[in-house]
Please model this.
Amino acid sequence: MKFVLEVTLDEGKMTEDTAGELGRVLRYWGGNLHHYALRPGDGSAVYDSEYREVGRWRVVESPAD
Model:
């Protein structure tokens, strides 16, 4: 499996304090993962401190090596 996190850094609070906002996203959404089974297909939208959607995380199957 693969955990994929995509965050757009060129909008809203992300442009004002990129490191701070990205750190917040990682802490908040990382801490929220225990609510998920973390199986392929799981995922959620990711929001900044103003509750605007700035990305998504998801669990996908890894391609065979």
About this structure: The CA atoms of residues 47 and 53 lie 4 Å apart. The longest strand covers residues 53-60.
